[in-house]
Structure to design on (385 residues):
């Protein structure tokens, strides 16, 4: 028995999509990407979708875009509040754009923001709250919106691990000014490499289109909110208006995405069925803290945090999983502030990160999949029992 972190979600449809692109001879970003963006926006009931090369570059573009909007652009030194547990590229764009990063603790059950700590941390200096929906689990956006109501604060979402999750019937990734998604192999749908940004704001949409491809005007519509675009294609072919990047996706990824999106409902449904079985076996296990679902999680994976006072140690847990052919990982990047890279950040820690530190030393997660995992979860329970 093997219990893997992730399994391929591709079938014959994705291979046919690849062959369609190969036959066309067009591999750089084009009509396949545009069609996937349109379908993705429709699926999540959003006005605009921008595909890029990864979830990490989606986060980069999301932060960069705030610096170039006409009204109240973000500035170097502005304060951004983040949870202390997430992936590295949630944080790196903040450092790269010179923002002041305020880390706050997480809730040890939901693994997202400790909302009481968030409420304490918000001040007149706060310009952005970047919510991370961890391991498929939504934040409580009703409470977050109450906390920032009436304040000049932009809400953003890193939803890279939580495609398909909902809060109060609304998709995660659509609560903030922008929300990002990852399309990497182990995520809910996969396009080789890839990322997506959703927004309702047309100006932000146009900024993202320019930033994604060199900061030029070529991919902007004639009527746009970034530049006065002329009708001369030659003049507009190499006209640069923003300090952008080249983080465009490939046509192959766009074609595969269209096929994967058709399967997303069934993929998330199966992940939830797997989660139901996991909870049936582990919810009463007095050795572990199991992630508490907020709204409807899309269950990226299943966390196991050794409870305080338990005689079990994480190193013993790891040895058991290793001997039982169960793949495992730290819970995302654990308490990110414990990494050496922090010496490059302008940051502060709001009070103590008690829960993040505990998770860092005592937690791990095992995988979930779009395939039935009942036998694997049963095997996991058996070797830990």
């Amino acid at each position: 028995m093997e219990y893997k972190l992730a399994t391929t979600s591709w079938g014959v449809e994705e291979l046919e999509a690849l062959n369609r692109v190969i036959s066309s001879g067009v591999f750089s970003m084009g009509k396949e990407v545009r069609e996937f963006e349109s379908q993705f926006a429709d699926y999540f009931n959003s006005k605009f979708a921008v595909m890029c090369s990864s979830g990490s570059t989606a986060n980069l573009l999301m932060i960069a875009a705030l610096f170039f909007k006409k009204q109240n652009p973000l500035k170097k030194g502005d304060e951004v509040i983040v949870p202390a547990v997430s992936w590295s590229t949630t944080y790196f764009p903040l450092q790269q754009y010179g923002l002041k990063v305020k880390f706050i603790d997480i809730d040890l059950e939901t693994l997202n923001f400790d909302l009481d700590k968030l409420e304490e941390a918000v001040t007149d200096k706060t310009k952005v709250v970047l919510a991370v929906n961890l391991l498929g689990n939504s934040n409580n956006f009703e409470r977050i919106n109450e906390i920032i109501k009436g304040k000049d604060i932009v809400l953003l979402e890193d939803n890279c691990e939580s495609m398909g999750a909902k809060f109060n019937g609304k998709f995660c990734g659509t609560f903030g000014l922008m929300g990002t998604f990852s399309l990497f192999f182990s995520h809910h749908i996969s396009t080789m490499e890839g990322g997506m940004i959703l927004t309702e704001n047309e100006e932000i949409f146009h900024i993202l289109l320019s930033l994604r491809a060199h900061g030029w005007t070529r991919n902007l519509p004639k009527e746009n909110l970034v530049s006065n675009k002329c009708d001369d294609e030659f003049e507009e072919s190499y006209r640069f208006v923003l300090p952008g990047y080249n983080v465009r996706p490939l046509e192959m990824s766009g074609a595969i995405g269209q096929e994967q999106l058709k399967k997303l409902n069934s993929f998330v449904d199966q992940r939830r069925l797997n989660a139901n079985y996991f909870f049936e076996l582990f919810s009463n296990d007095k050795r572990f803290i199991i992630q508490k679902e907020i709204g409807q999680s899309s269950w990226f994976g299943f966390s196991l945090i050794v409870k305080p006072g338990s005689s079990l140690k994480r190193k013993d847990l790891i040895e058991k999983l290793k001997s039982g052919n169960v793949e495992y990982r730290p819970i995302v990047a654990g308490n990110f502030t414990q990494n050496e890279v922090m010496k490059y950040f302008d940051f502060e820690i709001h009070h103590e990160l008690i829960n993040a530190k505990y998770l860092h030393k005592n937690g791990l997660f095992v995988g979930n999949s779009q395939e039935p995992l009942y036998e694997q979860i049963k095997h996991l329970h058996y070797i830990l029992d």
